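Lab meeting, item 3. Inverse folding demo.
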């Protein structure tokens, strides 16, 4: 049976694509692309000549039947403008239609701005809440963040450059001056990751440019500081197990939701104190 392949594509750097994704894009009969210009640039970079069909929020309703018709006899790939299909783009509608029509739907995983931002944020990533693109209007944003005031998980959201500063102001007013990682232009030439407090981010991004992913500290880390003696006890346990410093610090930072550098400082102090 023909399959709909959900193919993750680079979020910036064109080299960030898997060998499997390249093979699938070469072999399918048709590629449904959120932005055909961006996808054509990717295909040209990798020497792939393939038929494209535009599939975005403006034409999804009209083009879904056409794609299902192609699927009746051949494989189709779905790609978003960047990253993983179905995440804040119209890919969900085609995926659901293909499932309901009885076609096989196959994920071809790869880049995702959410995961990339979490990886470099320095904030806990064991559990997180993804908010997608934030509301355009301030009152709606404030209501959203107010509803999440007690959410202990790390928050992740997308934001445009012209709304970045108003959004940061709304976050401060509803959640307080929490820790945040503001990730700009991930994997691109002008990639930047700002880590600090929200008010510091406001001062830093006076004239924001590019695409932004926000990683915001959750409520538990904000309101319930971890006693240092608990961290010390855990590190001593791992020292007794002869764990290497990198692994011990990584493990404790993840367990307590602390910054890597903070746990490493405690580890060094313990190591220096050990006879």
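The presenter then showed the designed sequence:
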């Amino acid at each position: 049976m023909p399959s709909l392949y959900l193919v993750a594509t680079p979020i910036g750097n064109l080299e960030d694509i898997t060998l499997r994704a390249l093979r699938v894009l070469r072999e399918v009969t048709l590629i449904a692309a959120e932005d055909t210009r961006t996808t054509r640039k990717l295909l040209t970079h990798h020497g792939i000549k393939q038929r494209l069909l535009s599939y975005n929020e403006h034409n999804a309703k009209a083009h879904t039947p056409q794609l299902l018709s192609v699927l009746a006899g051949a494989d189709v790939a779905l790609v978003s403008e960047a990253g993983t299909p179905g995440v804040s783009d119209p890919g969900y509608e085609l995926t659901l239609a293909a499932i309901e029509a009885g076609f096989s739907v196959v994920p071809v995983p790869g880049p995702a701005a959410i995961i990339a931002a979490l990886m470099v944020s320095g904030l806990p990533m064991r559990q997180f809440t993804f908010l997608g693109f934030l509301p355009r209007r301030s009152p709606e944003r404030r209501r959203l963040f107010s509803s999440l005031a007690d959410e202990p998980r790390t928050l992740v959201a997308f934001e445009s450059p012209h709304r970045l500063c108003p959004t940061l102001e709304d976050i401060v007013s509803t959640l307080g001056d929490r820790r945040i990682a503001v990730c700009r232009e991930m994997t691109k030439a002008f990639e930047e990751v700002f880590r600090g407090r929200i008010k510091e981010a406001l001062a830093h991004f006076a004239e924001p440019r590019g695409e932004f992913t926000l990683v915001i500290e959750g409520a538990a880390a904000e309101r319930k500081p971890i006693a240092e003696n608990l961290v010390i006890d855990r590190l001593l346990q791992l020292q007794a197990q002869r764990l290497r410093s990198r692994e011990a610090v990584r493990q404790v930072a993840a367990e307590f939701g602390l910054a890597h550098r903070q746990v490493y400082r405690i580890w060094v102090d313990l190591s220096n104190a050990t006879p």
